[in-house]
């Protein structure tokens, strides 16, 4: 769908002047994408939420939730996403499907997050969390991923989970969310997914 802010394509008479400016813009876009991962090894593009080239109010590559309040925040020079429940039992989430490089046997998922005014919902999983689901080439879920769970208010903290990549998994679906909470605000930053040596995970070593 064309955005209302999308510029009208130039007439054929002006096309001769396009290459220079186009190449500059393309170069800036590529540079932004290269700068976007939370670390050099992260498989998540723009997991730092610093790049907003398409919409000046929202980071590139992340779909904005249709319920509640989702904003792109700036604090002390650092950008992050804020999810805020505006009525009880809402579910707000942002989404990214990450393709796993061939041969990936284990991964580490980490995030920097802050939770405030949280009132969990009626079920144990109605809280703030980074949900994760492995999927195979057909898009079917494959068991094995772990969620990063927040059920209490906290200042900025780092959370990490490591897990093996199950047989047949080709992607990891990552969904930072407020799931049917009674109330709460979830600030999310520095989402990183890294391929790791499976031998570093205790259960893998035991096997």
Mind sketching the topology for me?
Blueprint: H1 18-35, E1 69-75, E2 78-84, E3 90-93, E4 96-99, E5 106-119, E6 128-136, E7 141-142, E8 148-150, E9 154-164, E10 169-181, E11 183-195, H2 202-206
Antiparallel strand pairs: 1-2, 2-11, 3-10, 4-10, 5-9, 5-11, 6-7, 6-8, 6-10
Describe this structure in words.
With 207 residues, this protein is mainly beta. The chain has a single domain, classed as Jelly Rolls, CATH 2.60.120.260. It has two helices and eleven strands; from the N terminus they run αβββββββββββα. It is globular. The model is unreliable at 1-39 (pLDDT under 50).
Structural class per helix/strand content? mainly beta
In the CATH scheme, the class would be Mainly Beta
Termini separation? 50 Å
- Runs in which pLDDT lies below 50 for 5 or more consecutive residues are 1-39
Q: Shape from CA axes? A: globular
Figure out the total of helices. 2
Overall average residue pLDDT: 84
- String of helices and strands: HEEEEEEEEEEEH
Helix content: 10-25%
Q: What labels would you give this structure?
A:
207 residues, mainly beta, Jelly Rolls, six-stranded antiparallel β-sheet, five-stranded antiparallel β-sheet, 42% strand, globular, disordered N terminus
């Amino acid at each position: 769908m064309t955005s209302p802010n999308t510029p009208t394509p130039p007439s054929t008479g002006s096309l001769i002047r396009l290459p220079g400016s186009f190449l500059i813009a393309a170069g800036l876009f590529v540079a932004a994408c290269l700068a976007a991962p939370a670390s050099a090894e992260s498989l998540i593009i723009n997991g730092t939420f610093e790049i907003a080239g398409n919409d000046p109010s929202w980071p590139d590559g992340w779909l904005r939730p249709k319920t509640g309040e989702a904003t792109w925040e700036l604090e002390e020079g650092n950008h992050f996403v804020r999810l805020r429940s505006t009525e009880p039992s809402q579910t707000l989430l942002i989404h990214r499907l990450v393709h796993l490089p061939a041969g990936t046997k284990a991964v580490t998922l980490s995030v920097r997050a802050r939770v405030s005014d949280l009132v969990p919902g009626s079920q144990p999983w109605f809280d703030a969390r980074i949900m994760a689901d492995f999927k195979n080439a057909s898009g079917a879920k494959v068991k094995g991923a772990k969620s990063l769970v927040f059920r209490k208010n906290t200042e900025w903290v780092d959370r990490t989970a490591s897990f093996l990549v199950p047989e047949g998994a080709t992607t990891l679906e990552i969904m930072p969310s407020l799931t049917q909470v009674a109330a709460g605000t979830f600030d999310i930053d520095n989402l990183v997914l890294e391929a790791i040596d499976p031998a570093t995970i205790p259960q893998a070593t035991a096997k």
